[in-house]
Amino acid sequence: MIAVSVLASYCRRKGWLADRPVIERFPTRIRIRYLEPHELELYLAAVRPRLRPLFELLIGTGMRLGEVLALRVCDLRFGTGETRALVEDAKSAAGVRAVFVPPWVTSSLQEHIRTQGLRGADRLFPMDRWQAQDEHYRALRLAGIVGYTLHDHRHTAAVYLARAGMPLPQLAQQLGHATIAMTMRYARFHADYTDVGRYFDRVALALGRQNAPARVQSRVQSRRADDTSRARRPTTRAGTTDWKTGPAGIEPATPGFGDRCSTN
Question: Model pTM?
Answer without folding.
Answer: 0.68
